[in-house]
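Postdoc handover notes: sequence design on the structure in folder B. Input tokens:
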């Protein structure tokens, strides 16, 4: 992995680690579905402004609908799932479940895309999952039905991310005719195809959401803005470029680092405690990254 890609990888992990904290602050005040919709809408608007200032006008032709579908899988469903999980799971736990995405990508790649499994890839993923498991022991939760539902939501999101990483490589990879900027922008519009109907359904089922959103404090809205502009719009620019340059397996190793940042942000901003489990788990994750990212791994 090049130095530029490594910098993108670390920056992406920091942004996505922060996303779980932003959701934890916003969701209790705004609700899960409004938070997810706000995230998708702000990321789309932010990207539109940036691309407009650059004078960029995407010409997609036959790629429009595939990119919209990519947005549903890569953004819309995961945004909603993680917002739902934020109602019952601490931010670190959602980030820990997110770290199982590379393992899911190995399974999906083998079963659906004909990818070969190498010993180094398996060893790195297993070691990374071990590090995540150690982190999970830093603060165990009681397995109530609500917690299990939150875990299921996180698992659904990881499956979506695994599939979308391969689709991204095909649609916006280094040899693709689609520019990364266009792919990111259209995919965020695609996310709204599932999020907006979800919001309308939520408003019908829970009319109290309207006054809840209107009366939400500015702190909650501020976290949605950070979630949409930094942890989504900017993050997906880095992520799509990483997939184009390094491939889906190496790009998805970012999810191993995300829990480390999520824990660090919690410690620095929310006074959440650190423990030896965090240090041991972080060390195992770092070793797994070295195994997966070293030049001999394919």
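Designed sequence:
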């Amino acid at each position: 992995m090049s130095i530029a890609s490594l910098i993108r990888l670390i920056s992406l992990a920091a942004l996505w680690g922060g996303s779980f904290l932003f959701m934890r602050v916003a969701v209790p005040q705004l609700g899960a579905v409004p938070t997810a919709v706000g995230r998708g809408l702000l990321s789309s608007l932010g990207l539109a402004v940036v691309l407009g200032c650059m004078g960029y006008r995407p010409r997609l032709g036959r790629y429009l609908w595939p990119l919209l579908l990519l947005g549903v899988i890569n953004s819309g469903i995961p945004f909603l799932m993680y917002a739902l999980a934020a109602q019952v799971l601490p931010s670190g736990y959602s980030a820990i479940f997110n770290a199982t995405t590379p393992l899911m990508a190995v399974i999906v790649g083998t079963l659906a895309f004909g990818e070969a499994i190498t010993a180094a890839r398996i060893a790195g993923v297993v070691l990374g999952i071990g590090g995540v498991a150690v982190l999970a022991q830093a603060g165990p939760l009681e397995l109530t039905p609500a917690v299990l539902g939150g875990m299921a939501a996180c698992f659904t999101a990881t499956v979506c991310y695994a599939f979308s990483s391969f689709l991204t490589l095909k649609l916006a990879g280094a040899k693709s005719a689609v520019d990364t900027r266009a792919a990111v922008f259209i995919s965020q519009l695609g996310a709204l195809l599932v999020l907006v109907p979800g919001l309308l359904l939520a408003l019908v089922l829970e009319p109290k959401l309207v006054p809840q959103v209107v009366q939400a404090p500015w702190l909650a809205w501020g976290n949605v803005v950070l979630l949409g502009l930094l942890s989504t719009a900017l993050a997906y620019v880095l992520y799509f470029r990483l997939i184009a340059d390094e491939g889906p397996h190496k790009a998805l190793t970012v999810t191993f680092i995300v829990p480390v940042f999520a824990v660090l942000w919690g410690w620095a901003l929310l006074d959440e405690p650190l423990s030896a489990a965090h240090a041991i788990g972080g060390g195992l994750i770092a070793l797994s990254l070295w195994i997966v990212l070293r030049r001999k791994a394919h």
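Context for whoever picks this up: DSSP finds 13 helices and no strands in the chain. Don't rerun without checking with the PI first.
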